[in-house]
Model the fold of this input.
Amino acid sequence: MKRHTSYADRQEIVTLHKQEYGYRAIAQQTGWSCEVVRKVCRAYKRYHALALQPTKLGRPASGILATFDPKVRFACLRIKRQHPKWGPDVVLLELAKRSWATQVKLPSASRIGVYFSQFEDRLVSVRSHKQLPQENPMEPALRCAHGCWQMDMDERVDLPGYGLVNILDLVDMATGIKIGAFLFPARRKNGRRCRVSWPQMQFALRQAFTRWGLPKRIRTDRDRVIVAEGNYPFPKFFTLWLFGLGIEHELIRRVTENGCVERAHQTWEGRLDGYGPLDKLEEWQVISDYELWRMTALLPSRGRNCRRRPPLMVYPEARTPLRWYRPQDELAIFDIQRVHQYLAHGKWLRHSSSRGQFSFNNQKFNVGVKYKRRWLQITYDTELGFQVICTPDKTAIKTIIVAGLTTFDITGLSNEV
Done:
């Protein structure tokens, strides 16, 4: 008894099927089982004349695009080499123009993309990704008092009698109220220049939270202290601390999105004109706080809807915080589970070295020589932790432990009295 249908057998089955014979009638007439008849008819319905062509005996073809005609693989590779920046969708459209394209089965664009991925850097360059983790695109900021604070640093401002300082400015976007201007030295003790550090940012924000309460969102640029450099950055303490307090962190894409705080730099410097010389930074901070209070509560403003009235008079609701904050209550407000849920929305790509090593959050990890020079995807699961997955086959390799993600590491506060 024959084990495989020949080309003539398949033609006979299809011909009878076109004459509207049922599967059982065709099976009785041809001698094949109903299962074979059904399989041949369905294959013809899907692939047309290609389903009737003789197939090779032996082990089935393996590998990406191995089940397609060899001309498909060679043509895809040739098109990609000629046009390195073309994506799988464009390659598929170009492939369909070939004279033989109608005679063979063509793969999907996603399958072509997987085929290109196995050649790694020789064909595919990973698309730059500089955004922080987020579940969905952020909605527009709330147009209410403390709905969104804009934060920016004005560096190396020369104060008479003291020298260079760095200023951290905070402005409420909806009302234009100057939340605070905090001064920090721009030089270390050895005389070298420095920027605003993370402890200084945290100190300034805690003072602002104590006076105005916790905002809904804080909008910043990509300062190196706030966001790590490179593609697929891992969130720094600044972002994790805000999310633990229930505050969203938004990154601007252009300078105009932080227009309120950018204009505040120039306004603030103008208010300090004529003061000094003073040789102590604490004295300059007192003057800065005094001028900010006058700009908020006494002096006329040209801000939104102010009409030359003080902003706090136009927006008295800004005196009432959206959420109260006290430094001694921070550990009660901070929720590490919010940080874990935030990290669960992240996806980070890293490329392993020739020894199977990669760097993640300033730590070195090893996945073995088996996975050398490969793209690795790191994801976070609230139960399993950080998972290393090999792309593009999505094979889970190992679980890694990332240090520095405890409540004490992020807040700097301890439960001990």
